[in-house]
Design goal:
The chain is α/β, with parallel strands linked by helices. The protein is 31% helix and 15% strand. The radius of gyration is 26 Å and the shape is globular.
Length: 494
């Protein structure tokens, strides 16, 4: 019999299992480093006992670094670049100088045109609420909520191209390959419920925005944190959740047998590939799918909503039905424990326009988009508030960049990355507030510009997260949502 070997100063007794010989260290790794170790890591993670585990703390109201003011987020993304000077950024000079030469001083950089004449908004402006906020007649329903909203008028983008700029507003980077804000929130705070995904995306029924699902990717974060897409209004809202009608061979019995076999194969693969987050995410997705088969139909079924609620969201009107249904679904998801919901208004470029990219005829294209968005977005704010959910729910309205105050081709507006407007409400933000300012033309931000880094840092702050401490080691770098930037906008916090 082989004499026991000695390694360093530790005695390693050889164990015989069949024809294989294992020393003690190899035995412990093989049988403790497989499913047992994964199970132990899971248990330790749930209990918050791992050194790098992030876990919301009850004493911090669900925050991980400081006391949280909010628990959940809903983001309304206007794909294609909604015009700030036709919605929320009131500029009397555009009215007074309409038709005159646009001359703000210096070279005017445009995306695909030469500067046209100064172009006033096709819509009139009114003051709303006790705050007296000027809002365009294009979005009167949102205007009626002005006292609950904090407007950010000096937002700036590092790109005037839709794809990179959309990435920037979602991930903090103009390049692909970085996690979205929803994925970061999922990674930092985890789930509020076991029966629904932590991060849900409701895309426009007309198609994806530029970058498609990469906008809600988990990138290098564990894959389980990517957004779950629900196609509201489609016959199959969640891909592959149920067998197709043509799959007559699928019965409850053989489906159970298939899932049992799949579980066995997954466990064998996971034992051989410890720490592979892709497999863990795939396994988690199957487990979540089983739960969604019970929870999703109930969440997506609006029949139990009152007629008054459906009317509030415009579900009964053709122009608002789509966005209204998705905003109402977003509220149902939020109140049932989904942490982050993203609702898209606008698809990719096409003709006729099906997004906010109004190069040819702003009065027509923006009117079509705004009529479908305005009433449902305001309804979401009002509904959350009436249910007591707005206090700890952050509502974000944003776009990838703005539009120029001068005309393009006489009736359109070109891209403007130098200033645009986003707004936030609820979740501890100060209602009726305005932060930042653009110049008299609504051409460039005045003073210190506001970037997505600042908005992201502030949203994380309200969720009880220090944006500089929420990091993930990737390729030798401690990556974070705000890169190396970001300041909390304390002036708009209540």
């Amino acid at each position: 019999m082989e004499t026991p070997r000695h390694v360093c100063s530790s005695q390693e007794h050889v164990l015989s299992l069949g024809q294989r010989m294992f020393d003690r260290r190899e035995f412990l790794w093989r049988f403790g480093g497989g499913l047992g170790a994964i199970a132990m890591a899971q248990l330790l993670g749930v209990e918050g006992l791992l050194a790098d585990t992030l876990k919301p703390k009850a004493e911090l109201n669900g925050g991980i670094h400081h006391r949280a003011k909010a628990k959940r987020v809903v983001q309304l993304f206007m794909s294609g670049a909604a015009s700030q000077c036709d919605t929320f950024d009131y500029k009397p000079q555009l009215i007074a100088r309409h038709g005159q030469k646009f001359d703000p001083g210096g070279k005017v950089e445009l995306f695909q045109s030469e500067p046209g004449a100064v172009m006033q908004s096709p819509w009139a402006w009114k003051q709303y609420g006790q705050c007296g906020k000027w809002v365009s007649d294009l979005v009167p329903h949102i205007g009626s909520c002005a006292d609950d909203i904090a407007f950010l008028h000096s937002m700036t983008s590092k790109s005037n191209v839709h794809g990179p700029a959309t990435f920037m507003q979602n991930t903090g980077f103009v390049l692909p390959g970085f996690p979205s804000m929803g994925a970061w929130v999922s990674y930092g705070l985890g789930a509020l419920t076991d029966n629904l995904p932590t991060f849900v995306v409701l895309p426009d029924v007309r198609g994806f925005a530029p970058n498609g699902p990469a906008n809600w990717s988990a990138a290098f974060l564990p894959a389980t944190h990517q957004g779950t897409m629900i196609r509201v209004g489609k016959p199959s809202p969640i891909f592959d959740l149920f067998p197709s009608e043509s799959a007559k061979f699928v019965t409850p019995e053989n489906e159970r047998d298939t899932l049992a076999l799949l579980k066995e194969l997954n466990e064998a693969h996971r034992t051989a590939h410890p720490g592979d987050s892709r497999l863990d995410a795939r396994i988690a997705s199957y487990e979540m799918a089983a739960k969604l088969q019970l929870s999703a139909p109930q969440v997506l079924d609006l029949s139990g909503e009152s007629d008054a609620t459906k009317k509030l969201y415009g579900v009964d009107e053709e122009i608002t039905r789509d966005f209204g249904t998705r905003c109402l679904t977003a509220r149902r998801l939020l109140e049932r424990g989904v942490r982050f919901v993203q609702v898209w208004s606008g698809a990719d470029n096409g003709f006729p326009r099906r997004n906010w990219d109004s190069h040819e005829d702003l009065a027509k294209d923006h009117l079509d988009m705004a009529r479908g968005m305005d009433k449902p977005a305001a309804a979401l704010l009002k509904d959350l508030k009436s249910r007591g959910l707005l206090d700890d729910t952050i509502v974000i309205w944003t776009t990838e960049f703005g539009r120029m105050p001068c005309s393009q081709g006489g009736k359109g507006r070109d891209h403007n990355p130098f200033t645009f407007t986003s707004w936030v409400a609820g979740g501890g933000f100060k209602g009726g507030a305005t932060y930042g300012e653009s110049d008299e033309w609504s051409y460039k931000a005045i003073g210190e510009p506001t970037y997505c880094y600042d908005l992201h840092a502030t949203v994380l702050h309200q969720l009880g997260i220090d944006h500089e401490k929420l990091t993930f080691r990737h390729n030798g770098i401690d990556r974070r949502l705000t890169d190396v930037h970001g300041e909390v906008l304390r002036e708009i916090l209540a």
